[in-house]
């Protein structure tokens, strides 16, 4: 195991921010820490990185591990060029990493603005430079604290394609916190934290299946008739006189309903249960 925690806890006075969190992160895996605002995920991440001491419990790494971190806020100098920033950071390691800079420049597409001041870059360009900075020491494990917040969808996709390549080709271990739950869809392990406690863990698929539901909506001028004719074991909701909604266990059950009523429906929508649905069902709809 590359990293694990044992009853990791953090208190601020009488307030418990993190309460006995146990994580287990295999080498080469992708782990997502999810939770509402104030749930304790960022505090947990800071303890894993080592910039915050736990009140109790342990963080245990395998020997001789190299760590990279992409923070929410940049730690680079606005008045230096991208190249100067990377060279300066590379020299801070015991074994200077300047020789690896050209490789990262190519992989992350930094060539066109390498000699441009960091402060003049777009949000997506800055984030790519920050990822390059975090990869300078060729880490075994990369921590990403909400790395794509505020970025457009094209930049988000490009960053994740790169990270997935690094994970697959170099065996990079990734630990992510994010509010974009689609970024956790392919996580090997998801930990959902709320009020400082671990409320559920498992793969994205396991969590979707257990805590979300598939929705089928039929559009018809006989919605009330359909709603009344179904058996009690199928959850159904009459939205209005032209729409009826079903909660289905599977796509095949939805197909059976469609086949049964195809002659009297004008349209339909099918929404498979998602990680977003599961997250809301687990943590509630209240704004934090």
Automatic annotation (TrEMBL):
Residues 3-220 form the ABC transporter domain. Gene3D superfamilies: P-loop containing nucleotide triphosphate hydrolases. This is ABC-type multidrug transport system ATPase subunit. Belongs to the ABC transporter superfamily. The lineage of its organism: Bacteria, Bacillati, Bacillota, Bacilli, Lactobacillales. Keywords: ATP-binding, Nucleotide-binding, Transport. Coiled coil: none annotated. One of its GO terms (molecular function) is ATP binding. Pfam families: ABC_tran (PF00005).
